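Q: Please design a sequence for this.
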């Protein structure tokens, strides 16, 4: 081939290019952004509308439906979920995986702008947020200590501003934060004495909180600009405002009310280790280097801390950089271990010098692939690192074949330069074909849709880049380097394989195989029976099916539930009891709890959630397994009266929420509730389901103000006046807002009655200002109790309720869900209620369907390449039998390692295996065809081929298997730290995939050396 000849003629350029790739790749490796899991951009948007005091029913009618009507026509929209709750409405939009996120966001904004004109006047501007699964805190900073709350809040907000100025930080949320406001406390009697109404006070303050640009005057001698400043800047501006004249005296706000700058009523609390705290949760930008970003955050905190009081305690929690360093360190150790094992095999088979040459292909291909990833803006994560481990054995295959052939020619007396050039050119097409077959099976994985596809896309990209680089290493760089640094006089003589029976192991193999060549049908039958036996064995003794592998978590979360009209303080007392029950457990580093006044806006939590207690666990090898810890925690919290608690572990991989999710849609609210109750009871009857929750309205009471409109009309009182009167007893009547100099945000000015007057007993004694003077509210209105509706949900415009559940650790999600489906098929629900299976079942079905299609496409591409290489249907079919037999090896591998069949990991493993197992067959049949073309008789050609190719076949297989063996055993060898550990979380990700490939490759290779020659002998 001309490109190979050109490379040998310009060997210095090739050596220089190789050195450049090594150096540039090394720089890219240290510069590339590092993270644990890949950043997965999801085309999802969240539209929220806030309206203080609105009920869930009114939010559904006045907020949700007008927006839904406009949004449902969006192009590419796959699902729309809506929630109507007290004080707000929200809509979650999910677009097709291939949708343009920027364009979709523009379309959503346009539709919301059209619809917002139909919203009630007091509704705040709708907010549109883009959702991304990467937007979870990478580190949390807790501030606590014996100091005034205002000072603590101010320091937290100042730190938030500093952190958000960092380039890698997207936003910072403060857990336990308080919202400031200016509170104007006024006695009801004072309003009566001065004959003031709420409307007068509101209008007066609003008119006096304006900046009026009065214009300019051109005098001819100059131009004068006028303004009438009236903007409220501090409390004094409000206190000194004259509100009216009474008996000849000017009355100011200071005479009527108590004015103070304070906080709104608490909506939640945060504690760390049982002590009150403010917690800053830092999220990073997509593509930012997690480790570098967290280092910058810690530097900013250290600088700020120099000016903070000594009483302020600062702690870092949920530091992802530590787990990332551990994960990446473990996987890097596995990469080094894989390279070491591969090199041992190559040295033993080819000698030190040839092993060094083959070994250069590993860093050359690795660093070239990382350089390409860095140039494409990708990150270095666990998927990329495992892809490198997966590639270790495969990327040396071509180099082994080339160097092994060159060695033979040198041993026959050919000069090194000619020998390496001959080896590269002779094996070019077989190597290109075998590499192409591996690449073509990974190619369809690039088009995997959905979140799972985005998550796993790093694997095919990394493999394709490294194997492409390995092709150039095998055919150009390594042969040229071999020719440049070789000397004929110090080469060990190599034995040629012209005679089939030479060599002890080779001779034994040929003698064993020769009788079998006469009975190809029997050999094929025995191989088929072995395959069937493997399938039956796994069906009988296997561990079932799962979606994604279980990985030891770093965090465990306790979701505390309670029902009843509890105040936020009562809820916090219940959460404290859970904290006390868990504080003395020696399994965590930090314990962080949050109490919610209203958790309806928190995603993927029970409807009756009142708080969350999150434990950051100590390192996995210093504690019992997560399942044992969760069991102990369940036993402790089960003893606490008045609550229910769900214990959830950190989720790994692309799935979210509970594994079993059933959504019911329909028009009738009562039918939906009955359907949810029925599914709930079915789960209990089947057994094995735990932490069952549903979205039915919680039992409770709310007070509805029933107005006698005729009576109210006589007093010329409207609904707004009545609503304002009630607000004086609740959160306060918002008058206007102002922005003090020491705040970055505007603060509300709210008018309220004193604390002792804000209770239910005072409600009906309230006097409403009318044209006839103050009149008791009871004259034309009464409060009536009615069932409380917490929230109403929609799915694609229809009312929806859902049931979610987990399963016992010893059970399979897939099996439990099938039992539920069978129960619902045997006894269906109401025909007006439609059932949709979401969560893991939906994601698992999508993944399974795609992987089947990808496998079919991969097989088609393999056949095309094989026909291009051999132009022979029969030989292509012979090679495809290796793929079929390899699936039996996959099941045997899972059976030996006692792993379940993972839809994602084992599915990818089977597809990857299809490309790997054909390589040996391609090289084998190519050599056989060469001898046949030279006129060698069929049986003799098979014997010579096997004698020559047995060693490279076993070498390439063994290198791939040994490269993955640490992952199969979940083993991590720390060469620098001189330690060996088993079961690390970094290896738990990949046990299924590596077991599938090793089992399939071992089984198929044994059959390749036996079945393939027999099938070639079968062909007349």
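A: Design:
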């Amino acid at each position: 081939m001309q490109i190979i000849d050109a490379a040998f003629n310009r060997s210095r350029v090739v050596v220089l290019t190789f050195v450049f790739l090594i150096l540039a790749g090394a720089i890219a490796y240290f510069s590339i952004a590092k993270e644990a899991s890949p950043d997965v951009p999801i085309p999802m948007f969240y539209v929220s509308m806030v309206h203080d005091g609105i009920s869930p029913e009114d939010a559904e009618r006045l907020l949700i439906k007008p927006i839904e009507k406009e949004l449902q026509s969006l192009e590419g929209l796959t699902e729309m979920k809506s929630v109507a709750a007290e004080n707000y409405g929200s809509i979650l939009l999910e677009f097709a995986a291939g949708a343009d996120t920027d364009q979709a966001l523009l379309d959503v904004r346009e539709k919301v702008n059209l619809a917002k004109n139909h919203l009630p006047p007091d509704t705040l501007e709708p907010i549109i947020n883009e959702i991304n699964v990467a937007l979870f805190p990478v580190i949390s900073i807790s501030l606590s200590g014996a100091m005034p709350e205002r000072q603590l809040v101010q320091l937290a907000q100042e730190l938030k501003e500093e952190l958000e100025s960092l380039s890698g930080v997207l936003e910072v949320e403060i857990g336990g934060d308080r919202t400031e406001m200016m509170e104007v406390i006024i006695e009801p009697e004072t309003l009566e004495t001065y004959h003031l109404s709420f409307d007068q006070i509101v209008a007066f303050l609003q008119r006096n909180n304006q900046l009026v640009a009065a214009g300019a005057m051109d005098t001819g001698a100059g131009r004068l600009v006028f303004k009438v400043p009236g903007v409220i800047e501090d409390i004094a501006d409000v206190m000194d405002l004259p509100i009216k004249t009474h008996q000849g005296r000017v009355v100011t706000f200071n005479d009527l009310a108590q004015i103070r700058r304070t906080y709104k009523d608490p909506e939640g609390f945060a504690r760390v280790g049982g002590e009150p705290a403010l917690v800053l949760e830092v999220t990073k930008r997509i593509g930012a280097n997690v480790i570098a970003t967290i280092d910058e955050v810690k530097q900013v905190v250290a600088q700020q801390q120099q000016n903070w009081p000594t009483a302020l305690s600062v702690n870092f929690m949920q530091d992802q950089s530590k787990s990332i360093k551990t994960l990446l360190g473990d996987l890097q150790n596995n990469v080094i271990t894989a390279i070491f094992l591969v090199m041992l095999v190559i040295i033993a088979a080819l000698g030190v010098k040839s092993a060094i040459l083959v070994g250069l292909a590993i860093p050359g291909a690795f660093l070239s692939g990382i350089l390409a990833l860095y140039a494409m803006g990708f990150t270095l994560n666990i998927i990329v690192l495992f892809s490198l481990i997966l590639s270790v054995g495969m990327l040396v295959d071509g180099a082994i074949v080339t160097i092994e052939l060159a060695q033979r020619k040198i041993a026959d007396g050919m000069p090194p330069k000619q020998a390496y050039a001959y080896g590269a050119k002779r094996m070019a097409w077989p190597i290109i074909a075998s590499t192409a077959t591996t690449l073509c099976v990974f190619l369809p994985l690039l088009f995997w849709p959905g979140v799972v596809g985005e998550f796993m896309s790093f694997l095919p990209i990394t493999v394709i880049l490294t194997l492409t680089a390995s092709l150039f290493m095998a055919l150009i760089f390594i042969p040229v380097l071999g020719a440049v640094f070789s000397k004929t006089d110090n080469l060990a003589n190599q034995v040629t394989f012209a005679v089939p029976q030479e060599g002890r192991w080779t001779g034994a193999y040929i003698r064993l195989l020769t009788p079998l060549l006469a009975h190809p049908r029997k050999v094929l039958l025995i191989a088929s029976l072995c395959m069937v036996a493997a399938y039956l064995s796994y069906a009988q003794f296997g561990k079932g099916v799962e979606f994604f592998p279980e990985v030891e978590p770093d965090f465990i979360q306790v979701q505390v539930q309670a029902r009843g009209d509890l105040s936020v303080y009562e809820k916090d007392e219940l959460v404290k009891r859970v904290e006390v029950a868990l504080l003395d457990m020696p399994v965590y580093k930090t314990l962080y709890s949050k109490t919610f006044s209203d958790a309806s806006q928190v995603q993927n939590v029970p409807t009756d959630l009142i708080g969350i207690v999150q434990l950051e666990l100590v390192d996995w090898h210093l504690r019992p397994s997560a399942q044992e810890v969760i069991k102990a925690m369940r036993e402790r919290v089960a003893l606490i009266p008045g609550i229910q608690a769900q214990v959830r572990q950190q989720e790994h991989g692309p799935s979210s929420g509970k594994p079993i999710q059933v959504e019911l849609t329909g028009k009738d609210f009562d039918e939906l509730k009955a359907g949810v109750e029925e599914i709930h009871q079915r789960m209990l009857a089947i057994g094995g389901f735990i932490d069952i929750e549903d979205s039915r309205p919680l039992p409770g009471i709310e007070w509805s103000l029933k107005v006698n409109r005729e009576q109210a009309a006589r007093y010329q009182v409207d609904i707004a006046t009545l609503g304002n009167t009630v607000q004086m007893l609740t959160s306060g009547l918002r008058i206007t807002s102002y922005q003090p100099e020491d705040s970055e945000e505007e603060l509300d000015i709210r008018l309220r009655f004193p604390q002792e007057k804000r209770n239910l007993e005072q409600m009906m004694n309230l006097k409403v200002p009318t044209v006839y003077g103050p009149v008791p509210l009871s004259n034309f209105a009464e409060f009536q109790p009615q069932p409380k509706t917490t929230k109403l949900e929609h799915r694609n415009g229809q009312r929806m309720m859902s049931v979610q559940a987990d399963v016992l650790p010893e059970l399979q999600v897939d099996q439990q869900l099938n039992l539920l489906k069978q129960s619902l098929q045997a006894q269906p629900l109401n025909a007006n209620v439609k059932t949709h299976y979401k969560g893991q079942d939906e994601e698992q079905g999508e993944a399974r369907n795609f992987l089947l299609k990808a496998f079919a496409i991969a097989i088609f591409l393999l056949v095309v390449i094989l026909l291009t290489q051999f132009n022979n249907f029969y030989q292509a079919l012979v090679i495809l039998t290796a793929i079929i037999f390899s699936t039996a090896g996959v099941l045997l591998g899972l059976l030996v390692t006692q792993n379940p069949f993972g839809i994602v990991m084992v599915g990818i493993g089977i597809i990857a295996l299809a490309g790997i197992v054909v390589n040996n067959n391609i090289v084998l049949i190519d050599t056989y065809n060469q001898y046949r073309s030279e006129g060698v008789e069929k049986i003799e050609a098979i014997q010579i081929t096997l004698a020559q190719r047995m060693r490279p076949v076993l070498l390439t297989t063994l290198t791939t298997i040994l490269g993955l063996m640490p992952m199969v055993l979940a083993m991590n060898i720390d060469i620098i730290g001189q330690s060996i550990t088993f079961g690390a979380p970094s290896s738990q990700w990949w046990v299924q995939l590596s077991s599938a490939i090793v089992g399939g490759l071992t089984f198929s290779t044994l059959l390749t050396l036996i079945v393939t020659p027999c099938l070639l002998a079968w062909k007349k």
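Q: Thanks. Anything notable?
A: The first strand starts at residue 44 and ends at 50. The chain is about 50% helix and 20% strand.
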